[in-house]
């Protein structure tokens, strides 16, 4: 079940239905058992995967989370309560946990955000995952801390953008980074407003990506997909993709005033809500970023926000 990725670190691919359909959990070897980096989503098939691994005699010393998106934190409470494994999270991550415990507020914020930007109604049967956040972590870490994962020391690196509380773990001597969802090998991480609060996460993301030049990395271990062996090249490809999309979005509001939902539809077409929400979020955060650069401006009309090229 475990795949060796480098000395002292193994990978478990935790699969589940829906969403990204799988998460890479990394197990760092230690004298008292493994340190698990991210757990996978709360789902029967994910629990069965971990139970099968525990049945082989594997011991886990602690769980450490890169960020609090549900596919990374989903089984942290299960590890703590069912397996007696302590869970460590960032201080910012704990603040995000507290927000996600109030699902009614988040649903209200998301519904308002969608409506304001011309989107559809939030489905009434949207799931409630607040229970996965209803536990108290056993310890916290913060930016610039040094953490012992298994028997290895890692530098904690704050990389907001994909999530406000996203952290990577870096080893300078091995040029190795546990990179979570900050950079992925084949796809671009979605930059969204998942609590329904409007801010400029794409600006944060670009700054975090720029910081990668200070952490020379020969092997990056991402939260989804394959290992990244040429991080600098992958970063450049990713940034080129963002630049292309930003130019595309900007060109659309040159011709006419559009809501974020209308721009999204022109780029991605008509999608079911389960497939729509990520493209919509990516479109909205691009418009917010362009607005911060004074390339577009917004105005309100009939209760909705429209964007237009700033000539």
Automatic annotation (TrEMBL):
Superkingdom in the source lineage: Bacteria
SUPFAM superfamilies, A to Z: Metallo-hydrolase/oxidoreductase (SSF56281)
Gene3D superfamilies: Ribonuclease Z/Hydroxyacylglutathione hydrolase-like
Keywords of this entry: Hydrolase, Membrane, Transmembrane, Transmembrane helix
InterPro entries the record matches: Metallo-B-lactamas, RibonucZ/Hydroxyglut_hydro, Sec-metab_biosynth-thioest
Recorded GO MF terms: hydrolase activity
SMART domains with a match to the protein in the record: Lactamase_B
Span of domain Metallo-beta-lactamase: 22-224
Hydrolase listed as a keyword: yes
Keyword Chloroplast recorded: no
Transmembrane segments: 267-289
Protein name: Glyoxylase-like metal-dependent hydrolase (Beta-lactamase superfamily II)
Record organism: Oceanobacillus polygoni
